[in-house]
Amino acid sequence: MFLDANVLIYLNAGEESIVKFFRNLLMRRNTLYTDALVLDEVIYISRKKYGIRYEDTIRFLDNVVLPYVKIVSIGLNEYETAKKYIGVLKPSDAIHVAVMLNNGINIIVSEDKDFDRVGTVKRVWLGNK
Length: 129
What we know:
alpha/beta, Rossmann fold, two-stranded parallel ribbon
């Protein structure tokens, strides 16, 4: 399962339903993935939307996320794959999909319904686990 930025932002902000959801994912021993672009989004949006200091978000990522989530690389192959999804998705989301597809990941944990437009990706969120 690939974790989109929104789940990590809500987790960082202490949203109780997301904390429970994340714990459930860990207890079910799902292999969790994300990419560095997601980490960038978490750091930036946590500050912009919730006023969480960069240092606190970095500590959160280092201590709560990275011990349990594998970071998948973004390179030229992901860019090449992403090009066919730009227009259907925002560029950053197209890159996330490319990372997923190039690494054999077909489930994304996200509230973003735009991912439903990609037939090869299944989106899960709180209500549709």
